Amino acid sequence: MTSKLLIVTGxxxxxxxxxxxxxxxxxxxxxxxxDSRQMYRxxxxxxxxxxxxxxxxxxxxxxxxxxxxDYYNVSMFEQQVLELLGTLFIKHPVVIMTGGSxxxxxxxxxxxxxxxxxxxxxxxxxxxxxxxxxxxxLRAQLATLDPDFYAKVNHNDHKRMIRAVEVSxxxxxxxxxxxxxxxxxxxxxIEKYYLNxxxxxxxxxxxxxxxxxxxxxLLEEARQLLPYRHLNALNTVGYKELxxxxxxxxxxxxxxxxxxxxxxxxxxxxxxWFKRDYIEKLL
Length: 283
Description:
This protein is of the alpha/beta class. It contains eleven helices and six strands. A six-stranded parallel β-sheet has the order 3-2-4-1-5-6, sandwiched between helices. Helix 5 (120-145) crosses helix 7 (158-171).
């Protein structure tokens, strides 16, 4: 019997945790989290990480396994998950992967291009470019170095643009030419589904979850993480807005409203990604 990796993803707040725990209990399967932020143990509330009670119901992997101070990337995730699957498939014919980070899921399913580790000098130059010139300077540099990638990248996604500029400079050729996008063969079957709800229901769930996070102590969690706001892990919806509140840039009410707005936008981007090659399951 061929082993199967069952992907159950979906937009934020759709109900992935409850659904996959019930499914895992039914199948007797462990769960691998593919949420790039739930890995950080200091960000439990703001990432809606599974609770201790939920974790006790089913064996979970890659939840709370890192600190915000740890270096981590999608390539490391791919390698570690593949090693773990080799062990899990010995006892479990089906393993469930769930989470809302599409790039992490795609890395496990399809592999990723091998790109060089950042050159410290080039990274410093690009970071200074962004710090001094903002998005406009970054966009102009990328448009010059790689007009093809510039034409399709989200022009507000500074992290992807920074990486594209870094690689273009380091490899002395456009970043897009370094992406071969050759799908890697896996020795297990993959089924991919995304959970969805009517738009008004999903947005209402997002709003109620943000309110619940605030009741659970998100404000204090963000306050404790304020000294580390420069770390990549904290460039995350729910924390950035509260950091603005701590800086006096907005009221707490406005910060909460911004969290809801930005979370809705993130959910829309997730759905756009999932609709490419996932099967929809309406809840």
